[in-house]
Amino acid sequence: xxESFVTHTLNGLYYGFILFMxxxxxxxxxxxxxxxxxxxGELYALGAFLVFSVVGFATGLVASPTGTVSAxxxxxxxxxxxxxxxxxxxxxxxxxxxxxxxxxxxRDEVYQLLLTYALLLIFIDVMKFGWGQTPVDPGVYGTLxxxxxxxxxxxxYPSYNVIVMLVGLAVFGWLVWFFDRSKTGRIVRATAIxxxxxxxxxxxxxxxxxxxxxxxxxxxxxxxAMVSIGPGTAFLxxxxxxxxxxxxxxxxxxxxxxxxxxxxxxxxxxxSRWAIWLYPPVELAAPFAVMLIxxxxxxxxxxxxxxxxx
Length: 310
Fold this sequence. Notes:
The protein has 310 residues and is mainly α. It has helices at residues 2-33, 40-59, 68-87, 89-101, 109-131, 141-144, 159-181, 183-193, 195-200, 205-228, 240-253, 258-278, 285-297. Helix 2 (40-59) crosses helix 10. The chain crosses the membrane at residues 12-36, 43-63, 69-90, 110-131, 160-179, 209-231, 243-269, 276-297.
């Protein structure tokens, strides 16, 4: 019983870190731009498809692992290729924001929803054209599990899951540093708080908004890349569930709060995996039930800031 509890809790943390990488991008975009991006899930799926091609190319340049050291080198190559695949979404996000999203900032929210839904359909067709309708798999999951991690302390758990959790922690730490310590991050926060004042002191809001949307696209794609190198496959409909859960997470954590997105993602991840373990029929309902309970006591979410990235 205890071993099952520990295993399912770790699975929940792993799933939570995946959700955080997706929800972080959505939080950044909504917190600064005020855009509910319905195409965010397809950016996640696009990252999963891109990593299939990029990782396939990169791993073809290195020898198949034969020992611990070569397995670690292989893992580094896979992570670097995943970052490269997600980086392709930086210009994609920049073009989407500057060409499609920017003209509707001052329009009613209905236009934003219609536009991003149209982009969702376009991205699905792009993925269908580029990779077909058959699910794809980079096939590196088994090799990543050769990297010794929990075995060093006498506990058997997939190394891939451990890698994802460590990467998720690194992403959270980098985002906190970026928005709290870096000059660019402070400019983004200032723009989120007061756009008019930021413009008055010489900040280019157009460039800031493009950067923010590109960052959001990158983290969505990186989440998809980390999923695709795991036991799952990349398929056309994979963006829907993470998109819905990402909205649940940012509501639980509080709009515009990265800390809230982090805590909310871990809560949703653990609750959903506990639900699968204890009573599978409530897997989908459990995160929404948690959201409702939290909103009853804290309508602004756990760390709600209403319009400021924090």
